[in-house]
Design goal:
elongated, 5 strands, 43% helix, 203 residues, alpha/beta, 7 helices
Length: 203
Amino acid sequence: MIQLLSGKTQDDSGLINVGYIGESFNNIPDGYQRLVRQKMLSVINQNYYEFFNPIDLSTSHSDEITKVFSSTKDSLANDLSKLAKTTKLDYIFITTLDNISEDPKRVMLKGEVLRYDSKTNQLNRHEILSYAEDIDLHIKEIKIKMIDTIPHSIHSIGRNRTYLLAGIAIVLAFAIGQSFSELGRYLTAGDGSDADTSPPVQN
């Protein structure tokens, strides 16, 4: 506890860093594009690892991400490996979807969600082929297969560590204050030798 309060926290090498670099859409209306992004962000952004969103990543690593989206099937893993090294991400997610529906009133999604594992240099794929309104079924599967299988950080408090330490300090201060208060009451009461032990006066 004293070590935590002094700011000597664990080394950041214990953190798991996960990034979502965005989507590649083809012939998909804007409303459905926003829906897919919202769903993907909600499932990938978990609190037991450090999450990096596509806006921040595209701002700081635009060229590398552009190269990933233009990769061929043979070069994709290699381009993701380079991106992982520059961003220090352990896992990278990317979504590619096409609308293959011939009905203008309905959107049928075909594509996949990829998860790249930098330690094993492997790609995990979840294929999607369904109407857009059924996307939640895929989100549930993605969570089970691709999110829940990511290891937790050794210390998962990450960016919120400062707030946790402040909370610990407040709790400790309160506990110490209570202890001194109890001790003060005990000392004020004495050892009990001067207490009046005579029986009450009877009428």
